[in-house]
Every structure is written in C-alpha cells, then in structure tokens.
Amino acid sequence: MSSISCDMEMSRRSILAGGAAVATLTTMPAPAAAPVAPVDLAPAMTPVTLDVNGHRHTLMLDTRTTLLDALREHLKLTGSKKGCDHGQCGACTVLIDGRRINSCLTLAVMHQGDKVTTIEGLGTPDKLHPMQAAFIKHDGYQCGYCTPGQICSAVAVLQEIEAGIPSHVTADLGAGPEVTNLELRERMSGNICRCGAYSNIAEAIADVARGQA
Amino acid sequence: MKPFTYERATDPASAAAAVARVSGAKFIAGGTNLLDLMKLEIETPRHLVDVGPLKLDRIEDMQDGGLRIGALVTNTDLAANRRVRRDYAVLARALLAGASGQLRNKATTAGNLLQRTRCPYFYDTNQPCNKRQPGSGCAAIGGYSRQLAVIGGSDSCIATHPSDMAVAMRLLDARVETVDPAGQVRAIAIADFHRLPGSTPHIETALPPGELITSVTLPRPLGGKHFYRKVRDRASFAFALVSVAAVIQRDGNGRIAIGGVAHKPWRVEAAETALPRGPAPVTEQLMAGARPTRDNGFKVPLVERTLAAVLHEARA
Lengths: 213, 316
Fold this sequence. Notes:
The complex is a heterodimer. By secondary structure, chain A is an alpha+beta fold. Chain A contains seven helices and five strands; from the N terminus they run αββαβββααααα. Helix content of chain A is 28%, strand content 13%.
C-alpha cells in the first residue's frame, strides 16, 4: 500500500500481472498452452490507482481484490459494508463517476483511474450530506448496517430521475419520470434493509427531492 | 476465488486473440455475473481480459432504420436511450424489469446475453450439474424445480435462461455481431445464438472460446404496441417465473416471446398467426411438447394467462 508510482503506460497493453509478481507464478501457462494444468496459479499482484473521495491512492493488489475489499481492507474506509458479497443486498453501494454500483461485484483493478465516492465522501458528522440529514430526521434505519449503501443509492436515484432514466414503474417511457413513492420504492429495490425501515427511507428521499432536508 | 492474471484489452480482435491464447481465459465486462460465479468457484478463469476499455459503448442509427448497440452499452443506458424508448419499447421494458439499479449500471448488453442460469443446482457445487461439470448428472430433475424449464429441456438439463433483455432481443430478431481471434467478423441471428441443452448443456451459445461480441443490431422498428409483462415472486429484483414480450399491431397480429420457461428465450413464429384468435390457441402451439416437472406445471397455464393479460391490454 505504500506509495508505488504507477506508470500509466504500463496499463495500456501489458499484462498487468507483469513485473515482479510474474516471478512468483508457479504454473503460468505458456502462450498457446494446451490443456489447463490442475494446479492453481499463485496470486497475481497488480498496481491500481483509484481516486477515492477526492484522494488519489495507488495500491498493489491481488487481482482478486474487489473494489469493496480495496476500500475496506486496504484504504480502511469501512463505511461501505459487506452484506451478501454477491450483489443482492446493496450494502456495498458506492458511486463511480456519480453512478451507483455494487462494489462487491467489481474488481478494483477494473477501476484504474476512476472516481469513487463512498459514504465517507458524501458528508461528515460535522457537515452532513442532505440525504444523511434526511435519514436521521426520518429515522430511516434501525441497526444502520445497510444505511451507507442506502444513502449512496438514494443520492444516485435522485440523479437518475433528474437525468430522465426510466424505471420499471414509469408509466410513460416518453415522459420524464417523477419522484413518486412508487418510483422510489422500485428504484431502491437493490438495497435490502433487514430491519424494515423502508417506509422511512422513502420519506427521507422524498424530503431531499423536495429540498426540505 | 481462484487466482488469475489480468490484462486490459486494447482492440476487439486482439482481445479475442488474447482469450484464445491462454487456456482457461475469459472476457470480463461488467463482471456482475462472472464475479458472482468466480466467488463460488463455479467459474475459475486463469486469465481475465478486461474488455471495458474497448470503445464499444455507443448506440448508433443504422442506414436501414435499425439500431446498432455496442456490446458494452450498459443496461441502464440502453433502456434510457431515446430511440429504444420510442421505437423498441419492449426492449426498454424488459431491461427495466431485470435486476436492480446498481446492477443495470454495470451489466452490459453482451454480458446480459451471456449470463448463466440461476438454477440452484448449478450454483450448489455440492450437487451434480451437467452444465457446471459435464457428465455429473442433473440434480434439478427430480429436485426443487419450481423456477426451472418446462419446454425445450432434456434429460441432461432443465435450466432456464435468466435474461429479460434476451427475450425482447429474440422478439425483435436482433443479430449478434462478433469478431474471432483471427479477426474474422460475423453476425449471428439471435434465434441461433442461444442453444437448447440437449446432451451438452455446458455449451450455451453459438460462440466458441475467444469469439467476442462487438455489437447487437436491431432491424428497423416494428411499430405496434409494445409490452413486457413479467410474473415473479416479488414486485421487483427477482427472476421471472414467466415473462411475455409482445409487439401487437392494430389488427391483432403481432409477435410474442416467452421468458422463464426454457434454456433460451422461447419463440415459435408459427404460433403467432393465432394471435388474433386469442391466448388459448397461441399457447397451445407455443407450448406444444412442454414437459413440466412436478413443481412447475403451473407455468404452462401461467403463460396463457400472462399472454391473455397482454392481449387484453393491447385492445384497451
């Protein structure tokens, strides 16, 4: 994790497992190798540079590292949560260039140079994001485990509606979607809340949309 | 997850060559299905070629009035595209009926076509599955099969194709454009793209290893009213028990394709001539030869009832 200077040129064509890490590979198949040997490869390390909440970080990561694990285990940004680790619960939701994704279902190495925003980048205890303030006002959580993902998702939902992206419940594909309770519920379906705070979450998001948070 | 090496692709043909060069290599785009399966060690690629950097994320008008959709166009962007919403609404509706907002932001057009089944026995590595481990048997047959196929299955496999998007693509007669490791390009009719399981359920598409999807094309618009009606256990974020994609013209003629019932989007063109006569004669032809299990016999009447709802709405 120490400051590795990542030469961007290296990422252009090269096999990123290249460099020193290749020396550790025990069974790297030769080009045009025939059948797969039944022996596992050794872990392959690769440098990745991420812009997280406005700070640039270069990490040397096992290629298997998900973006979520890079954030939590390497950058110690533990706001994003690991729930199911299979893209079903939404607790790991972060924003990439403003778009919400499940950070558990993507590799850190696939985000070279991307701008990542986590719950820590949306607001701070002293300077809450309006969506964070609205969740507090409306009691949009109980245990709080899903909350960072809910809030990141909710911020993106309002941007998606603003951008005219339709949803399953949008009646007219030709007209812009509106901020209705039905739209918010459908659009938040990728964020599960085991405590069942859904109705308050929807109220919190609606408040932000109305500019009342 | 098993270790793997990783490279970023620079152009489609060399990406295809890179996958062909390393045994056990795979393309990765959105990764929402592949990484899920890699965590469970159902997929164990030794090398990943990330096609994300390829500029295959555009939607372009074609000279014949059709549309060319880049392989990497996300499900969100495709559903939100102005022309898709106006001229191919059935496709927009199908996309929006699938997955969650987060997943649609990552999932790509090509990856959606290539996603693997959600059969619980495919996912459970303690169970035999001919798709996961050829020759091991099928635990789904005689097992818990409520979600699984009622038609087109075999004694080797009764898995369904999980995609909603692919059902609409089948309805629209899309074509899948590819490049192979030698740089040769071809276009495959969507009807020929997905296979029935037969005795080789692990071979799911017409693509040999290393052939890369570069785009999907749609013929010029059909007009008519567009529907995608999906029946599932939850109101959102669940796979279909049955879905009906339909384009119905003013005179009652049209096209239908069914999801959730087979190893591929299910369409029988000959059955569509019965559409003006109502759902029963259509379903009779469409589902002829259905072999439901003890658990999923409800799907055949559910196809007819879902189609009835669509045709009712089309007349409204």
